[in-house]
DNA sequence: AGTTTGACTGGAG
DNA sequence: CCTCCAGCCAAAC
């Protein structure tokens, strides 16, 4: 039993990045997914932060619907003002506090294995 | 090799 | 609802 967290090898980190981009590319119009959920689907449940880093720093990630990724509270990315507009253009509704209405728009996938 | 940095999360106040 | 804090972990300093 490992009493310490797994650490990604360079190869695992590369594969993780590919999985994240692949998952994000499949988010349907008008739906959103959380960083944590994407990390889980990619097989690394505790790497939500790395999902954010991947979308932020990977060249070409802006060609994917990465505006459909928000945090678990429905909050949009810090400093990316246009994200809300992009979402509203595809029918995503926001609450009074400026958060996405997750109850209505969060896209949930089943973990198959 | 030690420290800081986040497109995160969960919990406390 | 908001802010603050601890835990998180690869990357960048």
Question: In terms of topology, how is this protein built?
Answer:
Layout lengths: L9 H15 L8 E2 H7 L6 H10 L11 E2 L11 H8 L12 H4 L8
Parallel strand pairs: 1-2
Helix pairs in contact: 2-3
The protein binds a DNA duplex (13 and 13 nucleotides) through helix 2, helix 3 and strand 2.
Helix content: 25-40%
End-to-end separation in angstroms reads: 22 Å
Radius of gyration based on Cα positions: 14 Å
Q: What is the count of DSSP helices, taking H or I runs of 4+ residues?
A: 5
SSE order, one letter for each helix or strand: HEHHEHH
Shape-level CATH architecture: Orthogonal Bundle
Largest sheet, described in full?
Answer: 2 strands, parallel
Number of strands: 2
Shape: globular
Largest sheet: spatial strand order: 1-2
At the third CATH level, what is the topology name? Arc Repressor Mutant, subunit A
Give the rounded overall mean pLDDT: 92
Poorly predicted ranges (pLDDT <50, ≥5 residues)? none
Structure classification: mainly alpha
Q: Name the beta content range.
A: under 5%
């Amino acid at each position: 039993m490992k009493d310490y967290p797994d650490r990604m090898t360079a190869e695992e980190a590369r594969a993780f990045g590919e999985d994240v981009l692949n998952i994000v590319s499949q988010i349907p119009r008008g739906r959103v997914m959380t960083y944590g959920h994407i990390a889980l689907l990619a097989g690394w449940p505790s790497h939500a932060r790395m999902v954010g880093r991947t979308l932020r720093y990977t060249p070409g990630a802006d060609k994917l619907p990465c505006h459909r990724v928000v945090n678990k509270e429905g909050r949009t990315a810090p400093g990316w003002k246009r994200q809300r507009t992009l979402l509203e253009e595809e029918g995503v509704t926001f609450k009074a506090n400026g958060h996405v209405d997750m109850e209505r728009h969060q896209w949930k996938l089943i973990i198959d294995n």
